Amino acid sequence: MFLTKMPTASAPNLAKLVDRLPQPLHQLLGRPAANVILPDNIVCFQRRLAADLNKPRRGRALHHRFVLICALRTAVTVCVDDQNIRLNAGQGLLVFPFQFHHYTDAQRESLSWFFVTFELAEVEPLAGLRYRPFELTPPLRALAAELVEAYETERTADLSVLLLGLLLARLRRLKPVGAASTAGNSPVPGLMLRVNQLAQRSGDHPSLKDIARSLGISPSHLRARFRASCGVSIGRHLRRLRLEQACGLLRLGPQRVSEVAEHCGFTSIYTFSRAFRLAYGVSPLAYRHSGRAAPVGRRARR
């Protein structure tokens, strides 16, 4: 695999490091483990062509897994939620669960990008990496190479899990190279994740009351908590989820626009078309024909 050929950092001098260690009187009193992050259900893969980045689903991806991206060759813009992040060669990015994302404006068609998708019980420890690219330092490249080798050769996932856990621990200590989100309030991943899970698991597009009932709080309390922690109203967020689902159906499916509107929970094609145009700057039919929406900066805000 290509990662095994990456340049690695020179190995530290073990003898010199050992000379710096203390000689304690009590060798049984050690340091406790804390904040250990162990991922699960790891999938490693790569892309060699820019046209393959949005596969297997054309349009913006939305799922419950983390996506760790390592751009080894060729710069591409990663569109995450409402932000366009230019990921240059030699940089990485972590996409969080239930973040809309797709790829555009590749520097060239040929590329080498490495991906790891995984699940994690706790989102908060990695919150500092949201929307923020990082440099693929020699230690990170070396760890990624070990991860790929273990993923290809080991019969069990134990070593891959430990190596990815170590890679994530290193990422948490890095200084990001990009600016943080310009949103007024940073989202609280726990609340948005739970709301997204409830909205995605039901095919009936649950109402605000249904979601509040599932969370064990009142609708008014949910509205206040969601706006305070996520910086947007929950009504707008749920509408956005339905519109992103509609984007995928318009690109992939043979359904008529009226059928897409009904499937995504809109009461009429007029309501759907109006919401779609306000969000993306084009009508649903024009989006289907062109395959893309207007640039983010030109989208209407409500």
List the helices and strands and how they pair.
Elements lengths: L13 H6 L20 E10 L16 E8 L2 E5 L2 E5 L3 E5 L5 E4 L5 E10 L14 E2 L2 H16 L4 H16 L15 H13 L6 H8 L3 H12 L3 H19 L4 H7 L5 H12 L3 H7 L12
Antiparallel strand pairs: 1-7, 2-5, 2-7, 3-4, 3-6, 5-8
Helix pairs in contact: 2-3
Q: What percent of residues are in strands?
A: 15-25%
Q: What low-confidence regions span 5 or more consecutive residues with pLDDT below 50? A: 179-188, 293-302
SS element count, helices: 10
* Helix coverage percent: 25-40%
Computed Rg:
22 Å
Secondary-structure class: alpha+beta
The CATH superfamily name of the largest domain is Regulatory protein AraC
Distance between the termini: 47 Å
CATH third-level topology of the largest domain: Jelly Rolls
- How much is the average pLDDT? 81
> What is the oligomer described by this structure?
single chain
What is the CATH first-level class name of the largest domain? Mainly Beta
In total, the number of strands is 8
Structure write-up:
This protein is of the alpha+beta class and 302 residues long. The protein has two domains: 38-173, Regulatory protein AraC (Jelly Rolls, Sandwich); 189-298, Orthogonal Bundle (Arc Repressor Mutant, subunit A), CATH 1.10.10. It contains ten helices and eight strands. The chain has helices spanning 14-19, 138-153, 158-173, 189-201, 208-215, 219-230, 234-252, 257-263, 269-280, 284-290; strands at residues 40-49, 66-73, 76-80, 83-87, 91-95, 101-104, 110-119, 134-135. The strands form two sheets. The protein has a five-stranded antiparallel β-sheet, covered by helices on one side. A hairpin with a 2-residue loop joins strand 3 (76-80) and strand 4. Helix 2 runs antiparallel to helix 3 (158-173). The chain is globular and about 75 Å long. The protein starts with 13 loop residues before the first helix and ends in a 12-residue tail after the last helix. The relative contact order is 0.12. The model is unreliable at 179-188 and 293-302 (pLDDT under 50).
